[in-house]
Amino acid sequence: MQRDFKKAVELIVSFTSSYDSKENTEIREKLFDKSNYKKYFDQIPPQMDIERIVIKAMIEHNDEQKAIRTIPLPLRRFYIQAYQSFLFNHALSSAFSDGENLFEAQEGDVCFDLHGILGKYVKGLEQHLALPFVGYSYYKKTRFDFQISKILQTEEISPKEFFIKEMQEISSEGGFRQAAIHCTDYASKNTTIMFTLSRGSFATILLREIMKPQDPILSGF
Q1: Superfamily of domain 73-178
Q2: Of 57, 86, 202, 208, which residue is most buried, by most CB within 10 angstroms?
Q3: Exposed e or buried b for every residue in 30-60, given b needs 16+ CB within 10 A?
């Protein structure tokens, strides 16, 4: 997002995590030093396929931007969308903490109707409240701009930066997402459950709530 392609390559090939295997962690630590790329390339395990693609390009071209372009387009777009989702979830949590009503739309809100069509709130119609999904066409005129602008300031990023001139194919216009999941037609029998979710909702989120233990924090959730 901030056009720091050098840092992006560094994170892709050498970022370590406690969830990674010992083998992967050891090779990532060696790859932190750019001069080791060629030396350890053949030792990179097959499961680190994206890392292999990026390092191969770095060995051949020594150009971070070209190296990132070798990553499959859907995955590069996923990186941007994941960050947008982070901003959206953060905004949703902040709005909830600030006392905003996220379950009922009101005058001036942007909403989805039952067919998933976006529009302004109309009293008397059944609509679902929507929050901005920040992109280069970010729509500021909502009651959630206070929370979103504050988060963007903290993140040191602006909506226009989602238009990536150097890599336009991963630019993201943004849009809207539903503020809450709407579940209907719920039924369960033995180990089988059935339900219908509003468009754009993830079944895994509902399943997490169903399976959540009595004390989520104590259970490691």
Answers
A1: TruD, catalytic domain (3.30.2350.20)
A2: 57
A3: ebeebebbeeebeebeeebeebbbbbbbbee
Domain ranges of the chain: 5-69, 73-178, 181-216
Q: Are 117 and 126 in contact (CB under 8 A)?
A: no
Q: pLDDT tens-digit profile of 3-27?
A: 899 999 999 999 998 888 899 999 9
pTM of the predicted structure, to 2 decimals: 0.84
User: Which structure tokens are listed for 87?
Assistant: 């901003």
Burial 6-18 (b: 16+ CB within 10 A, else e): eebbeebbbeeee
List, in order, residues 6 or more apart from 59 with CB less than 8 Å away. 37, 38, 41
Residue 17 sits at the vertex; the CA angle it makes with 78 and 89, to the nearest 5 degrees, is 45
The gap from C-alpha 27 to its chain's centroid, in whole angstroms, comes to 27
